[in-house]
Amino acid sequence: MSSVRRIAGHRIIAKDIIFSDGQMTIFNLGSVNADLFYRLPHLPAAGETLAAAGFTRGLGGKGANMSVAAARAGAHCLHIGAVGADGAWAVERLTEYGVDTRQLREVEEPTGHAIVLLDAEGENSIVIFPGANHALSETHIAEAMGSATSNDIFLFQNETNAQRQAAEQASRLGMKVAYAAAPFSAEATLAVLPLLDVLILNAVEAQQLEQATGRAAESLPVRDVVITLGGDGCRWHNTDAGSVRDLSAPKVTPVDTTGAGDTFTGYLLAGLDRGMPMEQAIGLAQKAGALMVTRYGTADVIPDLKEVQEAFS
Questions:
Q1: So what's the pLDDT on residue 120?
Q2: Its domain of life (predicted)?
């Protein structure tokens, strides 16, 4: 079977992908970026011109990464987002990776992108251009969530506009509302905090949120707060029960941590979507994140469920 759609005049075919409207769905309001990697002998100083030793373009954006991770974990993930006329390749790649792209819109703004400068020691400088990611209309988001039910999950991050409005709609529908508070913004996080069921942060973001609110993770008005701790695993606060669990991560030798947190989030939500208890879903997500850091790249190298299971069997 093949599904066919057109964007910017391009014919996009996703082979052997069938999306059933009857199954539970993760609705992900998220960014879609082109990640442009330039390898340099060193990071440029002000006014300096350097020749790049290498260049690659990959699919990225925190939203796209999470959608790919959720899809590769076996969930039906519908991505709500936008690209420009130059973004047909990104839509096609998302579709190939199993993401439901029927709610990706083409807008006048160019597709978002990140310029990543990498030196020989692995240090980097990154410039992000939001582009189409900040051109979503509330009407589009409302239409995209028109088929959502209380059995579904709504996921979002900080790389699009209309976050509060979308979270309010999801909450009214009775959906489980999950938020990865990255890139961190205290203002954006405080605006949606009362609407959340699941909050996912890294250790730095958790500290920044505590400074902004004066409240530690265990006292936030969110049932489940998950704080990722890199190679040390993660900390899960269940505020209803007043419990906290430190969960260790598999030990691996990392080569590139880019996208590992997004992989963790996508797998975590996919596990919850399948009915896993939180601790089991976290365990699966940590395995996926651990495998991800052994690879170079972002969305294009996120492991699928079979790879994760085989790596840690």
A1: 81
A2: Bacteria
